[in-house]
Amino acid sequence: MVQLEQELKGNAYPGRGIVIGRSADGKNAVIAYFIMGRSVNSRNRIFVTEGEGIRTEAFDPSKLSDPSLVIYAPVRVYGNDTIVTNGDQTDTVYEGLEKGLTFEQSLRSREYEPDGPNYTPRISGLVHLEGGKFDITMSILKSNDGDPSCCNRYTFHYDNPAPGEGRFIHTYMHDGNPLPSFQGEPKKAAVEGDIDSFAGMLWESLNEENKVSLFVRYIDLETGKYETRILNKNH
Question: What is the pLDDT at residue 53?
Fold first, then answer.
């Protein structure tokens, strides 16, 4: 099991990341999503609340050069399902669930981002709550080692996660040109502390120069009520 503090401090550019798991006391489903940026366009963003989810917004609208891959809703809620992704595939999953499709079926219409030569992976997660229990589904859609002619699709499902345990997936293995896509299964990661200490640890561990925004949510498994924290470098 990796320690997120060490994992993040040791990687200057994991890109965008999703952590989903269960709090150490077993009472909450935990979701975290962060974004980082190297370009002016990527760094010029904040998270804002929208409905039960969040949306990215340009901090300084005059600096927004291309909204296509940077402005989207990372988190949306559909009934007992909370969707978190690194792009507008949040909407694809939401609309798929409305039509009776599964998370995996919904994402079959999507592939990695059209930002060659990086071909940034699309990473997505779903938390499904039912009867005081929950399960996690995570997905990554990526190019075939940088070859855009083939999209590799991986879906991972975790039933009834153990207390204090989460799964961490991110877009890039590390900084580079082009940026190397994440490899392997989502990493098993420790989830510790209450929402404020967990959010604080993640935020402090992200590279100071590249970090942009962080979202953390704790969902009470008995009541379905949630607490949210949003941290923005631009404020």
Answer: 98
- pLDDT tens digit string along 177-226? 999 999 999 999 999 999 999 999 999 999 999 999 999 999 999 999 99
Q: Are 120 and 179 in contact (CB under 8 A)?
A: yes
Q: Which residues pair with 168 in a beta bridge?
A: 19, 187
For 12, residues 6+ apart whose C-beta sits below 8 A from its C-beta are 174, 175, 207, 209, 210
For 141-184, write each residue's pLDDT tens digit.
999 999 999 999 999 999 999 999 999 999 999 999 999 999 99
DSSP E strand stretches across the chain: 17-22, 28-36, 45-50, 53-58, 75-78, 81-85, 122-130, 133-144, 147-159, 165-170, 187-190, 211-220, 226-232
Q: How many CB atoms lie within 10 A of CB 85?
A: 27
Tokens at residue 111, please? 């592939």
pLDDT at 51: 97
Mean pLDDT estimate for the chain: 97
**What is the amino acid identity at position 67?**
P
Q: How far is CA 182 from CA 120, 157, 169, in A?
A: 9, 18, 8
Cα distances (Å, whole numbers) of residue 219 to 4, 51, 82, 176, 195: 20, 16, 10, 36, 10
For the domain with range 4-232, which CATH number is right: 1.20.58.100, 3.60.20.20, 3.90.79.10, 1.10.3720.10? 3.60.20.20
Per domain, the residue ranges of the chain are: 4-232
Q: Classify residue 2 by its DSSP letter.
A: B
